[in-house]
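Q: How do we represent a protein-ligand complex in a form that can be generated token by token?
A: Start from the inputs.
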Amino acid sequence: MGTIYVVMGVSGVGKTTIGKAIAKQLQVPFYDADDFHPQKNKDKMASGVALQDEDRWPWLDAIVAQYPQWKTKGAVLACSALKEKYRKRLEVDQLHVKTIYLSASCTLVKERLAARTDHFFNPDLLQSQFDALEAPRAGIICDATMPKEALVKHIMNTIQQQTLSQLGLIGLGVMGKSLSRNFANHDITLSLYNRHLADVEENVAMQFVRSYPELQHSKGFDDIEAFVNSLALPRKIFLMVNSGPAVDAVIASLEPYLSKGDIIMDGGNSHYLDTERRVETLQEKGIHFMGVGVSGGEEGALKGPSIMPSGTAEAYKQVGIFLETIAARDAQNNACCARVGAGGSGHFIKMIHNGIEYAEMQLIAEVYDILHYHCMVSLEDIAHTFDTWNAGEENSYLLEISSKILRKTENGQPLIDVILDKAQQKGTGSWSTTAALQIGTPFDTIAQAVLARIISSEKVQRVKGQQRYKIKREEIKHLEIATIKSAYQTARIINHAIGFETLRKASIHYKWELHLSEIARIWTNGCIIRSKLMQQLIGVLDGFDDSILFHESVIPQITKGQSALKQVVPKAVGAGAAIPVFSASLSYFNAMIQGDSSASMIQAQRDFFGAHTYERKDREGSFHTVWDA
Ligand code: NDP
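Then emit the structure tokens for the protein with NDP bound:
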């Protein structure tokens, strides 16, 4: 895939001469933009009438229409494009169109043109061009007064620098491979590297590059120094390695070859405090470090993930275009990617995303448990119920896959029946619980989902418990599916409220200035917790600085739904079901609407045994009582 260089500047500055010289060196065709004017414009110009904006749009569109053909090899186009808005039209494909601006003063161009005998020179026309000129601030900006050879050399050097890979990626595991293919499918030039382990892992990147046609323009490296040197400045390096010591090891191996201003993006599930530390350490060396949350799994990484990058605005300006290009699209076709905040906030947000995901998964598992084991509904009927819910307000990716899971068979048997009921975890759920507790925010549903996975892993003990107690699960009678649906949706809203409250409080605690509505928008596609509810939350959270539960549009929903929760939870628990997230959502809600709570008893107990003192409702101050007196 080639680049289209637009050589621009006023008449007489040398666009054609320089453009042709560059095209020759690059061995690509040269085009003169004037050749693409519609006949109407040509007639106007021939009769000496100046072109207006409305004349220029069809002309610029005719040029842009050539791009698909020009891009295959690359091209050089000489075009006046004096105004910013004309260049914007020409730069529709920002990754493949680059501007070369030949800059010179009006006096100098006048002198040059006056000296030329082959060119009719109209000083008024030239002055009007300088009046219209809005000099570009980006692209290759050159001094057109330089001698021609020096000018061409300068431009070629700059272009060569730009033909280095736009992006580097380290770590060709499940996610790294998919992300690389996604970047390459969007014509982003890549250098790829995977660690070299003698006799174990050699030339991994080279072999990978050869395996997929879309990687034909990507370069694979087995040597870290050569990898770094293949990248355009400032270097942009995406890490997709396991979190923890691997990230530090990769950073240490890169450091000797990096320059000030280079950017490292960590796309793995790193702990946000590790990211904060790395940001600080690398900042002292002039290197930008960004925590980039990525969600969507292997398929999302390939087809369009949801991306949550944090770091300095300066660094995001350099890398945002690449991340936004490969991200999923929201309902308005905007990228599900935006700079979410400073420091480690990207990884914090990804961690809370995973926490919400844990509880969403557990809630579906609990609905399955109630329906299958207590309401005696067949797997096919549960799948059908999930399909029906998925067609309405409860729509979500997780519900969609759960219905498919229930229908999956192996040798005629439902696969779910033979999957060992021990849920695994990689740690982000418990990290999020710890982080929430550290900043003092309730995390009921998510913490319970983490604990449910831990209890599930105690299979041996659970089987022992079943044998010792012999208490059977009971059938639940008189529980409508519609009631379970309402309870499910209510618990989901409460779970999302808990997740977003944690983000809101962390934002204050860490001074991240998170924009919660924008985070909800990023989570509407590409990620595991995409859902109709998430789309509704964009509006709920917009300009609302409080818990989702207190938003005027949510209060009627919860008021109605909590009565369903109050039917489902006691009935299911009473029948022997373990439904920790349903139960936690109801307890959290009950607690959050109690102006008076039982915590006065806790305070009294603390003061009784530890003289910790207590505050009073009727008086200001701190009090201690001699309780036994
Ligand atoms: P994999 O295990 O498939 O790949 C890990 C990569 O890291 C491999 O390329 C591996 O190299 C490399 N690596 C491991 N240790 C080192 C080291 N010490 N030095 C250099 N390279 C090392 O993991 P995933 O691709 O699934 O995940 C990568 C990151 O993305 C993790 O942090 C994960 O939590 C996160 N993530 C994963 C998602 C998923 O759905 N899988 C979703 C979102 C984020 P080698 O091949 O040589 O072992």
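DSSP finds 27 helices and 14 strands in the chain. Residues 360 and 492 are 7 Å apart (CA to CA).
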